[in-house]
């Protein structure tokens, strides 16, 4: 017998049925071997099914915010005090199990317009839109717990360091993205301003907040320019610094632009080399161009990659020590 025949006989295989996912059958030589004295191997248990994932439009963490828990939020959080910023009053707390996890609560009446904010934020998933992470109900009030972003853009404008184009472009790109996200779904924020734009202390992201004035357009083509014009005012505020808000209105800006003035800026020379920024501002304030066109075809200025979020870190730190908001510390035993 030839060597080839001996090999074929030794490694002859049983016929395999053509059924998928069956184990491989051993050769005759393997079956003829003496079994080793080994303990029987345990049969592995089938894998446990993973947790059921609820499908929703809510961003990470917001799902927990939709579950309304009874009682005050100070069962799980240590109350530190109340922070008053113009028309906003936020209750600041910290998680009892972790002294590094801060949270800010907004207390609203069940029947108020502000109570709609939870439903609005439940369907918005965007990195530049603030998130609700937990919700409590006590008596006739809701307590909405937001991700910690206590500084507003307005506070950053009141530090002794003025913004340059790196900062302005970051604000433009972040807020345009948030407004575009809303606008392509026919939502109008209705209150974009330096007061409603916040900075997340942990990530440095700019976050659009205060969604109690949100409305929805009946037709996509009827979407108003309101949010984009408000963004234009925000950018001009960033370029000017501490200029009072009442001196910058859409009508005022358009009138100054017709007079061939650079949007009424006090120091237009600082921005003489920022041609794309000026073109973008022209686009935001253009009444002839519909809002849906501006959103469906973004301007080149916001298509460019902006500076990283860390460029705002020095301003955030300065705001901490230079901008003194009204603070009401928690009294002993208050919860």
Summarize the structure.
With 335 residues, this protein is an alpha+beta fold. It is 31% helix and 17% strand. It has helices spanning 3-10, 28-32, 62-66, 117-122, 153-157, 165-183, 226-240, 250-258, 275-285, 291-296, 300-303, 313-322, and strands at residues 68-70, 77-85, 88-95, 102-109, 132-138, 141-147, 151-152, 187-188, 197-199, 206-208, 215-216, 326-329.
Task: List the main descriptive attributes of the protein structure presented here.
alpha+beta; Phosphorylase Kinase, domain 1; Transferase(Phosphotransferase), domain 1; 2 domains; seven-stranded mixed β-sheet; three-stranded antiparallel β-sheet; 12 helices; 17% strand
Structure in words:
- With 335 residues, this protein is an alpha+beta fold.
- Helix content is 31%, strand content 17%.
- The protein is built from twelve helices and twelve strands.
- The chain has a seven-stranded mixed sheet with strand order 1-5-6-4-3-2-12. It has a three-stranded antiparallel sheet with strand order 7-9-10.
- Strand 2 (77-85) and strand 3 form a beta hairpin.
- The chain is globular, with a radius of gyration of 30 Å.
